[in-house]
Amino acid sequence: MIDNLPDPNEFKNLSIQYVAQSIDHIFKTELAINPPVIVTGFGDSDFEEEWEARQGVLGNSLIMLFLCIENFLSMKSVN
After folding, report:
1. Mean pLDDT of the chain
2. What are phi and psi of 15, to 5 degrees?
3. Helices and strands (H and E) in the chain: how many
4. Using CA atoms, how far apart are residues 22 and 44, in angstroms rounded to an integer?
5. Which of 13, 35, 73, 74 is least buried, going by the fewest C-beta atoms within 10 A?
């Protein structure tokens, strides 16, 4: 017999935390990349360098979104 089954609210709380962190990382990345550079096209090398530097953060954001979905589905299966 399986003991200590997780509560569905634990999965829900984790899901919410993951999506909040993911959105926070994406928002901070967007603020770090200079919007006028995107619009005007001046300083493309700066944009490319910043984009390359932020790939790890954006990758982590994607992983957190997948974890959010996984925890949400786990919450539904425990119910």
Report:
1. 82
2. -60, -45
3. 4, 0
4. 26
5. 35
